[in-house]
Specification:
585 residues, 30% helix, GMP Synthetase, Chain A, domain 3, alpha/beta, Rossmann fold, 16 helices, five-stranded mixed beta sheet, globular
């Protein structure tokens, strides 16, 4: 089934205005934002025209102005058309934060293709399954992934693979340095009719005739981002042009100090909704400069901050742990910072206090701010605004977004101050999960007020002023360094090994990554726990799971605790693990 054949929920405006005690913090016009009938590229181009001579991107000694960026997007869009990409086609991009990946994202959007964004650390079997699931016709891949792609590409519908390199946009000196230190290690494809290197690919666009731009409008699918649903199995979240543009409009209102003089460190990956929208698209639509960081090294964070003097820092817990724990940060000044924005997971009060103290000691005049978000709502739902802040909360809903707290599994709203499931309605709510009607209907429900509400699967509390306090996840999903890890997926891989009779995976605390996966395993008769078996299980996971999903702790047991209905009681294991760690202290 192609993406054009699918039925999606479409946001057609709030039919009946829900309660919104936070409205007093916004101008009346901001509660009813108007999303223009444009695709992402058109909305970006419209704003970029004001900043044509500003730098849009800085990347390893190369600076690209908005004028140059738009020209590169135009040539790239024609190159994709020259190899047969058309409206509604799914093109998968598996890349780190390099300029060519962003050029491709906007170029594909310009011609009406749908970008499926993938993590370069995915295993080869995960890549194959995803390419087939979304009927990918063209793959855009960073060269470091070629060693995996070559093994599976013949088992997919992909007819052309465009190969990028981290060095493509580097200046000449950086290119030489990269090739001597890293580039020579990367396996590269031989030239043939299937693979094409980026520089050769772009030449196709230079020779392809200019055609009238195709406007797909705000309701057309723009991107697929990977996430998980109630089953914990990764699924494709289909987001529209209007979803992205609405999020950008909201950011301009909620972050009024953002302007064309700002510098944003593009550390958050582009295959992550938080990174793609907040770090990249929002920045481009105000004329700011994005410093692209394809690989973040915690040990070099002090150099990044000193060299680029960012005014906006967007990250997950791992990033801020790296900042506060870097021993060379003593002489680094942070007085340029306007916003320090965290996503990916919540922070406790002690960590927030620690980070704020650190910022102020280094000259920052701003505070660390948290929000609540889901990829299903383009990452941002609520935010602790400068002018509407409450310690311990994840702020108030973004302008134009409505949030209510309901009794889990129902649309029955609970009183202020009462725990319940967080539900979201508004123009950033996804179209649905790709080709998964059941999960879509579980997540998107029409309530009695006639509005479509996204059920988050997260527990929270709202006070009488509209401030939301995040409590915990209903789902079993583990968040490690800001990445989603799905226990059921790991269990499925482990149980492929004949030695594994039963298994379950939980998240356990980690001082740096917040959480990591721990596997509990029951061995089949005749097998014993030994170094050889553990090595086999590690290799099995490395072959089939992203690196961040591989368990870092293992425990072998004779049996696993079961619930009254016979399911593995993972909550009991979580409690046991918590008590064990407490006793160790």
């Amino acid at each position: 089934m192609g993406i054009l054949d699918m039925n999606f929920f479409h946001f057609i405006g709030i039919k009946r205005k829900p309660k919104a005690p936070w409205r007093k913090f916004y101008d009346k016009k901001h509660m009813n934002i108007i999303v223009p009938n444009m695709n992402i590229y058109e909305y970006f181009e419209k704003h970029a025209e004001r900043y044509m001579d500003n730098y849009a991107i800085e990347y390893f000694g190369t600076k690209i102005t908005y004028r140059e960026f738009l020209n590169q997007i135009d040539v790239c869009s024609r190159a994709y058309k020259s190899i047969g990409v058309r409206k509604g086609d799914v093109v998968s991009i598996i890349s780190a934060n390099v300029p060519e990946a962003l050029i491709s994202f906007y170029a594909l959007n310009k011609i009406g293709a749908v970008c499926n964004m993938l993590h370069p650390m995915l295993s080869e079997n995960e890549i194959k399954d995803i390419l087939n699931k979304y009927s990918t016709v063209v793959l855009v891949a960073l060269d470091i992934t070629y060693s995996k792609i070559k093994n599976i590409i013949r088992d997919t519908e992909v007819y052309k693979t465009v190969i990028l390199s981290a060095k493509d946009s580097m200046n000449i000196f950086m290119k030489i340095g990269y090739e001597f230190t890293q580039g020579y290690k990367v396996e590269k494809p031989r030239k043939n009719e299937h693979y094409i290197m980026w520089k050769d690919f772009i030449k196709y666009g230079e020779n392809y005739p200019v055609e009238k731009s195709l406007s797909t409008g705000k309701d057309f699918p723009a991107a697929i981002l990977q996430s998980g649903g109630s089953t914990g199995i990764p699924k494709g979240i289909v987001l529209s042009n209007g979803n992205f543009n609405a999020a950008t409009i909201q950011a301009k209102i909620a972050l009024p100090d953002l302007d064309s003089n700002d510098v944003i460190l593009g550390i958050m990956p582009i295959f992550h909704g938080f990174g793609l929208e907040v770090s990249i698209n929002d920045a481009f639509c105000v004329g700011a400069k994005v410093v692209l960081i394809p690989t973040f090294k915690a040990s070099e964070f002090d150099k990044l901050l000193s060299k680029h003097k960012p005014s906006v820092l967007v990250g997950v817990p791992t990033l801020f742990e790296a900042m506060t724990n870097n021993e060379r940060m003593d002489r680094v000044k942070l007085n340029n910072l306007k916003y320090v924005i965290a996503g990916g997971d919540s922070f406790n009060k002690q960590k927030v206090t620690k980070i704020n103290n650190f910022l102020h000691e280094h000259g920052a005049q701003t505070n660390f701010t948290q929000g609540f978000g889901m990829t299903e709502a383009v990452a941002a739902v609520s935010f602790d605004l400068k002018y509407a802040s409450r310690p311990g909360s994840v702020g108030i809903p973004w302008p134009g977004t409505y949030v209510k707290i309901v009794k889990p599994g129902t649309d029955e709203e609970v009183p202020y101050g009462t725990d319940g499931e967080i539900c979201i309605s508004g123009p950033t709510v996804m179209l649905g999960y790709y080709n998964d009607e059941k999960e879509t209907n579980d997540a998107l429900r029409i309530h009695k007020d006639g509005n479509i509400w996204l059920h988050s699967g997260d527990i929270g509390i709202m006070d009488k002023d509209g401030f939301i306090t995040y409590k915990q996840r209903l789902k079993r999903m583990i968040i490690s360094s800001g990445y989603n890890v799905y226990p059921s997926q790991i269990e499925e891989v482990l149980e492929r090994h004949p030695a594994v009779l039963d298994s379950t995976v939980i998240g356990v605390p980690h001082p740096y990554k917040v959480e990591v996966a721990k596997a509990y395993i029951v061995l089949a008769k005749g097998y014993r726990d030994n170094a050889s078996l553990r090595k086999e299980l590690q290799e099995l996971c490395a072959k089939n799971l992203a690196k961040y999903s591989i368990p870092t702790e293992w425990e072998f047991r004779k049996s696993l605790p079961k619930t009254i209905v016979g399911k593995v009681d993972f909550r009991k294991l979580q409690e046991e693990n918590k008590r064990s760690r407490k006793n160790e202290k």
